[in-house]
Design a protein that fits this description.
With about 260 residues, this protein is mostly helical. About 75% of the residues lie in helices and about 0% in strands. It is built from eleven helices and no strands.
Length: about 260
């Protein structure tokens, strides 16, 4: 485990040095992130100027959920999106061999190798939005706080498992970019509670594309809207999703024909 943590630190520091070479671009990306998040908060404030509760969600809970959305989205864009895009490119070009020959887990190396450091700002601002939302809610206990940490980590793993499964299709299809675009479209829907959507979309956001679960459940936990049983089901479902996605990836890997074949 220590070895993999050292590798992650090395990957991150390398990409951070690259980002710092273009500091103006770095600043502009951060400013853009701030504007987008402030716009989203403004939309929530406008919405709640007409109502006090949206299907059981008050303003504080909605701000917490919005913060969770930016945490999950930021994590996906920080490491998962760039890594999986590079992985699919390696498969198309037949250059995945270079990763497969390394003395570490190939799945780890190709799925957690690339970082877009500027998205740390998005995650940090997401944390600020959560803190603001919590200020409008009753006091949060230790159990809710610990449950939130578990739930948000499960959200990260669910997004990882989904992107791993989608990108694995690159072993059989030339391009799977349209599927990835579909994922990002569903991710945008996650900025609102999954239970406000129609039945068919609610089921999709909770099962086939579990973005709603990854975002909504952590907000439910920290605002005291979810029982322990629901959190336990989330942990179990996340474990199953990760195992199935990893097995699917290894099945796809057997079909890979690299440049050295």
């Amino acid at each position: 485990m220590t070895r993999y943590l050292r590798l992650l630190r090395l990957f991150f520091s390398t990409d951070l040095q690259y980002e710092l070479e273009y500091r103006t671009n770095l600043v502009l990306d951060i400013v853009q992130t701030i504007v987008i998040i402030l716009t989203s908060i403004g939309a929530i404030l406008v919405l709640f100027s007409y109502t006090d509760v949206l299907n059981g969600w008050n303003l504080g809970a909605m701000l917490v959920l919005l913060g969770c959305f930016y945490l999950v989205q930021g994590f996906g864009e920080l490491v998962l999106a760039p890594s999986f895009e590079k992985f699919m490119e390696h498969v198309r070009l037949g250059t995945l061999d270079f990763a497969l020959l390394k003395p570490v887990s190939a799945q780890f190396l190709v799925t957690l190798r690339q970082f877009r450091v500027t998205n740390l700002a998005q995650m940090g601002l997401g944390g600020v939005v959560i803190a603001v939302g919590l200020g409008r809610l009753p006091s949060v206990g230790i159990s809710e706080g610990l449950g939130f940490v578990v739930a948000i980590l499960c959200g990260f793993v669910l997004v990882y498992a989904l992107l791993l499964a989608l990108s694995t299709l690159a072993f059989w299809f030339v391009r799977v970019d349209n599927l990835m675009a579909l994922y990002w479209a569903f991710l945008d829907a996650g900025r609102f509670p999954v239970d406000i959507y129609p039945g068919w979309l609610r089921v999709t956001l909770s099962s086939a594309v579990p973005i709603g679960v990854a975002v909504t459940v952590p907000a439910q936990v920290i605002s005291g809207r979810l029982e322990f049983v629901g959190l336990a089901e989330l942990v179990a479902g996340t474990f199953v999703a990760f195992v199935l996605a990893s097995r699917f990836w290894h099945i796809g890997l057997r079909s890979y024909t690299g440049a050295s074949a």
